[in-house]
Amino acid sequence: MTTHYEAMTTYTATVTVRLKQGVLDPEAETTKRALERLGFELESLRSADRFEVEMDAESVAAAEDRADEMAERLLANPTIHDYDVEVTEA
Amino acid sequence: MTTHYEAMTTYTATVTVRLKQGVLDPEAETTKRALERLGFELESLRSADRFEVEMDAESVAAAEDRADEMAERLLANPTIHDYDVEVTEA
Fold first, then answer.
1. Does ipTM surpass 0.90 in this model?
2. Measured between CA atoms, how close is B88 to chain A, in angstroms?
3. Fewer Cβ atoms within 10 Å of its own Cβ: the N or the C terminal residue of chain A?
4. pLDDT, tens digit (0-9, with 9 covering 90-100), for B58-75
5. Greatest CA separation found in chain B?
6. Cβ-Cβ contacts under 8 Å, B41 against chain A
7. Best CA proximity match to B75, nearest among A47, A3, A72, A50
């Protein structure tokens, strides 16, 4: 009898969560004005949350799927957020 | 008499601000535990703030310098944060 173990690799999934276009972002607006008050010139400022998740998975695709599900279920709010996922080997 | 105008290009500078290694991040810890409660397996989770700043500048180097100064003066707190800057043409 042989038991087969799937080889696992450690991946880093980076999930970037942004407010959707058109959703007001008063925090970014405040930061932009504070920078202008300091004398900086800028056209616009958007802020986003970035989560770097380290996980063991069988493949890049499996890590991507899991990070995607994390975003859908907890990290992003689909009503107001867009997100993207990027996976690299850790 | 000629007046010389420097050609300006629009750049997007992405400033990523992270807590330094060793600084406690209770928010990330809470998010990690919430994901685990949902049944996800993960080794670690780090969170970071990401600022996407659109600006007109003479060159990539000038845009980088300005974003760097924004990070030093407002976006990051050098006592607890590390940051990096990435500039692309918008």
1. no
2. 15
3. N
4. 999 999 999 999 999 999
5. 72
6. 55-56
7. A47
Total of domains in chain B: 1
> How many whole angstroms separate alpha carbon A6 and alpha carbon B67?
45
Q: What are the tens digits of pLDDT across the range A47-67?
A: 999 999 999 999 999 999 999
Q: Do B35 and A69 touch (CB under 8 A)?
A: no
Angle among Cα A60, B20, B17 to the nearest 5 degrees reads 70
Q: What's A52's domain CATH number?
A: 3.30.1280.10
Structural domain that includes position A49: 9-89
B17-69 tens-digit pLDDT:
999 999 999 999 999 999 999 999 999 999 999 999 999 999 999 999 999 99
Q: Cβ A52–B69 below 8 Å, yes or no?
A: no
Q: Which chain B residues contact residue A10 at CB under 8 A?
A: 43
Question: Does residue B17 fall inside a structural domain?
Answer: yes
| Contact residues on chain A for B31, CB-CB shorter than 8 A | 51, 74-75
Q: Which residues make beta-bridge pairs with B56?
A: B10
